[in-house]
Design a protein that fits this description.
Chain lengths: ~325, ~625
């Protein structure tokens, strides 16, 4: 286990490196002169030249990348000109809420998706399966930003069960209960699509596993269906499902951008949308890098869980 | 080129197959309706979608002149929705086609040229996949600036990896095929091979990937527009209409909700059609999935099937007139038909036959382990010490399984759970039937492993199946069967997957265990040599029927059924290396199209006219022998 973990850890270094190259290239290939964009069209040529030098734009792309990477290593992600503060400070502040939202959704979609998939598989072609399959199809096809609006209209505006937006109540509040109360609707909205994906995969994987010979062996031992399903079938299915849950985090982290916008959740997603509108490139860069790095780490965790479940992988 | 058509030629065309899938048809209707209306927008009598009419602003649904109301500038919603759908649909389709084109190209080049080209391209694709899906699109839009065209680029780029990966995988497989080598040898250039031999075979995988990604692409472009990063006013797609009306959702919910509803409908239509296409092109990936075998074989006697005679109460196991059929595609496969057998305490009965003869189905039917669907027991009686097994309640059946009657299966790698230690798998059956604690059961598991002669059992108990050799895994299977000291062990080709020396050891083990414990053994095999070695009596099966039974010594010395005779000719004899091993020419009849009369007639060297005219009964030719052959009494 330890050697596998170390090997797997070593494997993420080139991935992180590749991510930094892609982000750097996307940002370096921006059409137009960033110096001009920052200073506006009334800047004098002298000022532009000075800023280009300050930003290192007069050097070669490789040189620029090395300097940039060196700065990243020191935690220097540059300065956000629209907020006039270091990018790293802003990102650090907003990472927590995003991870909280994504984590809550991931928990929801894993539990609900697995349950729906297992029920669907063991009641194949029964009415439970038909209803769940229909729900899954709708879930997979729903624009989450639209669903968020509907949930707000119904549960916040009409029924007043949940707050309309934000992370804490403005007056009072601030405790965990208040946080969970604010978290409920956005987390549910964000979980819908991923729940559909996991439910579908669980159903088909379970059906595949249930046909295998070791399930017949388990039944030949006289085990009851509950044990056969849980101990023998589901565990084997999970080996294939866990990595997909890891990949779903990518969709959840991306989807968080919509949900944070709809629910005014103070996370990185909403920050990115604002930063793109104000052309605050360094802020976008910092936000994307940090979230992508989180995603790599989550996939690493999913691989380690898979390894724990399956004694055949690595050693 | 012939290879491309061979797979699909035998099956009906794509349209009849898609039409049979009702959900896909529903999806197709939704999709066609939306697409038709969107395409017809210029000729429909609609007001200008951008004409503002402030007095009508936020007009509710069903207002005069505005059936779907009007937005914050008094623009007609119906017209805007239809024109917006046109934009969303066009952007989604173009993005999908662009991603398909570029992604497939990358995949083909990587798969076809292999080596460093493949490594370089696929590493780059991996890097793109390392980003959360939407985030990469956001970064691209951030660089290019907001706008519908840029959103299209971004969504297209983030979908390229899905095409590149699946196309590369299929290309890699195709490049190694013979007909590609043949094309090379005939001097065709790379380009000719790619377009002529490989591209046509890639179409299914490209279509499958398109069917999964098109829905996402429409959702995500709508999402970017919703965030204000896609379509910019006055241009509008469904997403931007929803985004602009978001602030008004409390005053005029319909202005925001209707565009979203149209997106939902559009994507549902795409996904339904996509599922249909996947089911059609690749049933394993499909949404339907494979049929799930139930916990016990269904027992549903055919109307008018004769009441079987009760088996003798003295037998440990008595089977009469057992019929286990498989219902597949509307056809009935008579996998086992009218099978009868008696197994007495301490006895070993061998069942011999080719694969497909019904020997395993007979064995699995005893504890109702034949999968339903498609299997079903449609007639007969199975008694265990006088107790009727076919009428047992599920809980009582489970109490018997692995307890009084236990199985040893072929292929011990597939029949053991790969994720549990072998000790746990033995202990599990002990705990189930003897109610022992976990540690007691584990201690018993070590004892059992020692009894089946696994060296270093105390350590091996915590090994996983893949860590043991084939012979050791089979010993684990035997230990599991012995765990609750059953009266009957049913061994289904337990030595087939093993090499000869291991096979001999396993047979020795079974013989010793039988002698020590007096367990009755039902031994299924295709190998007469093994039967001669181990069994007291033998039963030969052919095409789902019993064709000959008798004491092993008598049958070996004087086989009466032509099939038995031919089987015995197949057995190599030690010390006679020159003996011709006469494989039986021809194949057994398909059990869904059994001929009239004797089922062996077509392969028989003694066949006469009468063999084919009427069913042949099992004829008792001696006190302990039966034969299903009308010429059995002839010399």
């Amino acid at each position: 286990m330890l050697s596998y973990t170390l090997r797997r850890l070593a494997m993420i270094v080139p991935v992180l490196f590749g991510i930094s190259v892609i982000v750097f290239l996307i940002m370096a290939l921006i059409p137009g002169d960033p110096a001009l964009a920052i200073l506006g069209s009334f800047a004098t040529p002298d000022n532009v030249a000075k800023l280009r030098q300050d930003l290192g734009l007069d050097r070669s792309l490789v040189e620029q990348y090395v300097v940039w990477l060196g700065n990243l290593a020191h935690g220097d992600f540059g300065r956000s000109y629209s907020l006039n503060r270091p990018v790293i400070d802003e990102v650090r502040e907003r990472l927590g809420p995003t991870l909280l939202l994504a984590g809550a959704s991931l928990l929801l979609c894993t539990v609900l998706g697995l349950a729906a998939g297992v029920v669907s598989a063991i009641r194949q072609y029964g009415w439970q399966d038909k209803i769940l399959t229909l729900l899954v199809l709708i879930g997979l096809s729903t624009p989450s930003f639209w669903l968020g609006l509907i949930l707000v209209l119904v549960f916040s505006v009409q029924l007043k069960w949940f707050p309309v937006s934000g992370m804490y109540a403005i007056y009072g509040g601030g405790d965990t209960l208040d946080l969970l109360w604010h978290l409920a609707l956005p987390a549910i909205t964000l979980a819908v699509v991923a729940t559909g994906v996991i439910a579908r995969l669980t159903r088909s994987t379970m059906l595949e596993v249930l046909r295998q010979d070791f399930v017949r062996t388990a039944r030949a031992k006289g085990l009851d269906e509950r044990t056969v399903i849980r101990k023998h079938a589901l565990r084997n299915a999970l080996v294939n499902i866990v990595p997909i849950i890891g990949i779903q985090t990518g969709f959840v982290l991306g989807g968080a951008v919509y949900i944070e916008t709809v629910f005014q959740w103070p996370g990185i997603g909403r920050m990115l949308v604002t930063a793109i509108s104000t052309r605050d490139i360094l802020l976008v860069q910092g936000g994307v890098l940090v979230v992508a790095a989180c995603y790599v780490l989550i996939n690493l965790a999913a691989d380690l869980v898979q390894h724990m479940l399956d004694p055949r992988i690595g050693t | 080129m012939s290879a491309t058509t061979s797979a699909s030629a035998a099956r009906p065309g794509w349209w009849p197959r898609l039409r049979r899938n009702h959900l896909a048809v529903v999806g197709l209707i939704i999709l066609a309706a939306i697409a038709l209306i969107a395409l017809a927008a210029p000729i429909l009598p609609l007001p200008d979608p951008n004409a503002t009419d402030l007095p009508a602003r936020l007009a509710p649904l069903l207002s005069p002149g505005h059936p779907l109301g009007a937005d914050q500038l008094g623009r007609d919603m119906l017209s805007r929705i239809i024109w917006g759908t046109r934009v969303s649909l066009a952007v989604g389709v173009v993005a999908a086609l662009a991603a398909a084109l570029i992604g497939s190209l990358i995949g083909i080049v990587a798969g076809f040229y292999g080596r460093w080209v493949d490594t370089a391209l696929m590493r780059a694709i991996d890097m793109l996949m390392a980003f959360p899906y939407l985030l990469l699109a956001l970064a691209i839009v951030a660089a290019l600036g907001p706008g519908l065209l840029n959103a299209l680029f971004a969504i297209s780029i983030v979908n390229i990896p899905f095409f590149a990966r699946s196309v590369r995988g299929v290309t890699l497989g195709l490049v190694r095929r013979d007909y590609v080598d043949a094309a090379r040898l005939t001097g065709q250039g790379d380009f000719a091979i790619l377009t002529g031999e490989i591209l046509p075979n890639l179409l299914p995988v490209i279509v499958i990937t398109l069917s999964t990604t098109l829905g996402w692409m429409i959702l995500e472009t709508a999402g970017l527009s919703f965030l204000g990063l896609g379509a910019q006013p006055p241009q509008a797609d469904l997403g931007s209409m929803l985004g602009e009306a978001r602030a008004l959702v409390l005053v005029a919910p319909h202005v925001a909700l209707i565009p979203g509803l149209v997106i939902l409908l559009l994507v549902i239509g795409i996904n339904l059609v996509g599922d249909g296409i996947r089911d059609m092109l690749d049933p394993r990936l499909g949404s339907g999935g494979l049929a799930r075998p139930g916990a016990a074989t269904a027992v549903a006697f055919d109307a008018g099937s004769p009441t079987p005679e009760p088996p003798p109460a003295a037998a440990a196991l008595g089977v009469r007139n057992l019929a286990t059929h498989f219902l597949l595609g509307g056809e009935r496969h008579k996998a086992a038909d009218n099978v009868g057998l008696d197994l007495h305490a301490g006895e070993c009965l061998g069942i011999v036959g080719e694969s497909g003869s019904g020997k395993s189905v007979t064995a699995l039917s005893i504890l109702r382990l034949v999968p339903t669907p498609p299997g079903r027991i449609v007639g007969g009686a199975i008694h265990h010490h006088g107790q009727d097994l076919l009428g047992l309640k599920p809980a009582d059946l489970r109490d018997l399984r692995g307890n009084r009657i236990a199985y040893i299966f072929q292929d011990p790698l597939g029949t053991l759970n790969p994720l549990l230690t072998v000790g746990e798998q033995i202990a599990e059956t002990i705990r189930r039937h003897q109610g022992k604690s976990r540690s007691e059961a584990m201690a018993l598991a070590v004892d059992l492993m020692e009894r089946v002669r696994i060296p270093d059992a105390a350590n091996r108990v915590s090994a996983y199946p893949h860590e043991l050799s084939g012979g050791q895994r089979q010993r684990i299977g035997i230990a599991m069967a012995l765990a609750n000291d059953p009266d009957i062990i049913i061994a289904d080709e337990p030595t087939t997957a093993l090499d000869v020396t291991i096979q001999a050891e396993i047979l020795d083990l079974l013989r010793d265990l039988r002698r020590e414990r007096g367990t009755a053994l039902l031994f299924i095999t295709h190998d007469f040599g093994v039967v001669a070695d181990l069994c007291d009596r033998v039963m030969v099966m052919y095409a789902g029927r019993v064709v000959e039974t008798g004491p092993v010594r008598d049958v070996l010395r004087d086989p009466r059924h032509p099939y038995t005779r031919r089987l015995l000719d197949c057995v190599p004899v030690l010390g006679q290396p020159k003996r011709a091993l006469n494989a039986i020419p021809g194949l057994p009849p398909a059990v869904n199209r059994l001929p009239q009369g004797c089922h062996f007639a077509d392969r028989c060297d003694r066949v006469i006219e009468r063999c084919r005219t009427s069913d042949v009964a099992l004829d008792p030719i001696g006190p302990y022998r039966t034969v299903r052959c009308i010429r059995a009494r002839e010399p």
